[in-house]
Amino acid sequence: MRLCFLSLVVFILFSCESKNEKQPPNIIIIYADDLGYGDVSAYGLGQLKTPNIDRLAKGGTRFTRGYSSSATCSPSRYALLTGIYPWRNKRAKILTGANLIINTTEMTLPKMLKEKGYHTGIVGKWHLGLGDSEIDYNKELRPGPNEVGFDYSFIMPDTQDRVPTVYIKNGSIVNYDPADPIEVSFEKNFEGQPTGKDNPELLSMKWHHGHNGSIVNGVSRIGYMKGGESAKWSDIDMADTFLNQAQNYIDQNQSGPFFLMYTLQQPHVPRIPHPRFKGTSGMGPRGDVILEADWCIGQLYAYLEAKNLLTNTIIILSSDNGPVLNDGYYDDAVEKLGTHTPWGNLRGGKYSLFEAGTRIPFITYWKGKIQPQISDQLVSQIDLFNSISKLVGSKQRSRDGEDLAEVFFQNKGMGRKELVIEATTRTALKSENWVLIPPYKGPKVGPNVNIELGNESDYQLYNLEKDPSQQNNLAQQEPQKLAELIARFKFIRGLN
Ligand code: NG6
Ligand code: CA
């Protein structure tokens, strides 16, 4: 009898083991919004403490030369999901109330994973557009995430600073009341609706530039909105809402394999932490919401651990673009920064062609599989499609990504040799340790945001190995290198 019982236990253990071995790993991409290279303490360059991100960084591969595809949001997200350079798609620009910019016939990361038997979900910020003609928020909002490969979606449509300030679950507005229809305009206000411009007395956080439209929860946004009272989100609860959604998604799909995009709203403006985090960083709301995001990541990690999912789940953490302090509200981001350096030792920030625009925290973590390592291989989010495709045994390959599965998930192999990055429709080339920035018209420093954008009347050439902060333009001294990189840049971009 006892023997019989024992062999049953052995059998069960063995079959669980072999099921896990055969099943491809779950994949979670944690994607922050405007988190800088120096904002994560594991990078050792700033003052904020992010212990939960650090745990992933210290237990996995922390990339020192990991790039987003663009220095702004929508283009980076487009490239991550498609493996296609955003500058190939005219509509892949910062979106405001726009239509979906991914063609529903296009191959995407979640579609590819679905083909391999994954359940796919996205929770958090979307910012890739909705619908294919004029958007009516009182109807199903399709096509959207569910039409480009996600089985489940719980999203905010654009950003916290844009209307409509509502969540959308699988194409429908959460808590929608048909008796209170939603109207949205980015051109003009609806009669009788207060705005940040006309009613500053109603604001709990004042706008600095842009962001003077409809007021929701004491904060004025980009655009105008009327109706939808019961559907409006609570900003202070957003982090908890997305975390709970992410955990529910994992709970429901724990038999796996699942793919979850957990797209955090922090630290994009308006920065409105839950009161639990208010004042915790000493750096004002920007620091506080980063600590809030870090806490959420810790909670997600603990949840996976409690469910025994850690050894069969890959966690990839990154950010859609570099940091910005004043992005449109008076929120003390500049005043309370102290000695913290969100951009680390890099030049520029969000919107910039300089390094801090696109070089961002980039970490891959897989307990027991990826050994702790700091990697200086050149990698980009645009490579995740091909690399994950390789990992799960799919034959799908995107046009612009490279297969860096070994670099991302196996502590070996070589990264890219070269990469084109984008910043508000301008592009630049990274080639090994060199950076080429073509001449662009426009201000050297972005008005209001006070970030060096990379615009110069002539070519700029930097050697990052010797000059990580891009202080010495070598275009004059290195004519041969310059000519070589100009030729490569024009070739890749198809310019002549
Ligand atoms: C800009 C907004 C900025 C931010 C950005 C998008 C103004 C003046 N500025 O147009 O606040 O919302 O768009 O950021 O409105 S991103 O991270 O989603 O790309
Ligand atoms: Ca962003």
In CATH, the homologous superfamily of the largest domain goes by the name Alkaline Phosphatase, subunit A
CATH class of the largest domain: Alpha Beta
Q: Approximately how much beta-strand content do the residues carry?
A: 15-25%
What strand order characterises the main sheet? 7-6-5-4-12-1-13-14-2-15
The tally of structural domains comes to: 3
Count of alpha/pi helices: 10
Roughly how many Å apart are the termini? 81 Å
Computed over alpha carbons, the radius of gyration is 23 Å
CATH topology-level name of the largest domain: Alkaline Phosphatase, subunit A
Ions, cofactors and other ligands present here are:
2-acetamido-2-deoxy-6-O-sulfo-beta-D-galactopyranose, calcium ion
Overall SS class: alpha/beta
Helicity, as a percent range: 10-25%
CATH architecture of the largest domain: 3-Layer(aba) Sandwich
Low-confidence stretches: 13-19
Largest sheet: 10 strands, mixed
Q: What is the arithmetic mean of pLDDT?
A: 96
Series of secondary-structure elements, N-terminal to C-terminal: HEHEEHHEEEEEEEEHEHEHEEEHHEEEEH
Q: Per the principal axes of the C-alpha atoms, what is the gross shape?
A: globular
